[in-house]
């Protein structure tokens, strides 16, 4: 493809990234660096602030309704702190799966792929994309949550009882390293598309068209990184290496969720997440 | 297809919100 076509593809995916994801890297960066002019997130660092923060989240659901989301978190049943945090996290995750799906559909050529292959690409790619999407929301001290309205500290998450305390720590470790790459919104958009279009997922029937699409996105990503980050010639290679780390991270995450399902009597996994994680690794 | 019916629905239906 001509470089003009590749640039057009980058622009298109970046637009789609802004359209489908409520908290982009640039927005998260502004919040985390305190550049939002008096609109800083509510900090959750202990049980007391968690209780206050939950009320705070409920009070600020308006932007969600404005985006015509019909699904709101269910009324919080009384229960253990850890399970309550987990319920909120998985509700947001299910919403994020929908956002990633809409993003995938906007990748040129994706919806023309075999329908079962589209399902497999999403099933395997969605948690990798979501984990990567989490990185800009994090710094070494904590993570943004609830569309950037909440900042939950890493120490608080680590203080939850086992195995809940083990859930976020590997994501922080990944995020701190990933954020060093200093990608911008358009780089992120292309990287997500590369992850989704992985032709080596188990069970794919028609691999060739997937690989062809990925090849084009990879060319666009390489060109873009060379143009935007000329001072870092290794960036493209470094970014591709992250895909290996992501697979391991997701495999560990899924193992942990399966363990939780066995151990926690009260835990109920969201049907969409259940569907994705069943027989995945 | 039955095993991934919500994903199928998400992929096929772009406008109406999916009842989860």
Features:
heterodimer, A: 281 residues, mainly alpha, 12 helices, B: 20 residues, 1 helix, 0% strand
Task: Describe, in short, the structure shown.
The complex is a heterodimer of chains A (281) and B (20). With 281 residues, chain A is mainly alpha-helical. Chain A has helices at residues 3-20, 25-32, 47-59, 62-66, 81-105, 115-134, 154-159, 165-179, 185-196, 207-228, 235-263, 271-277, and strands at 42-44, 138-139, 142-145, 150-153.
- Strand coverage percent of chain A: under 5%
Continuous helix count of chain B: 1
Give helix % range of chain B. Answer: 40-55%
- Please identify the structural class of chain A as seen in this structure: mainly alpha
**What structural category do the secondary elements of chain B indicate?**
mainly alpha
What is the strand arrangement across the widest sheet of chain A?
1-4-3-2
> What is the first-to-last residue Cα distance of chain A?
35 Å
* Greatest interface by residues involved: A-B, 24 and 15 residues
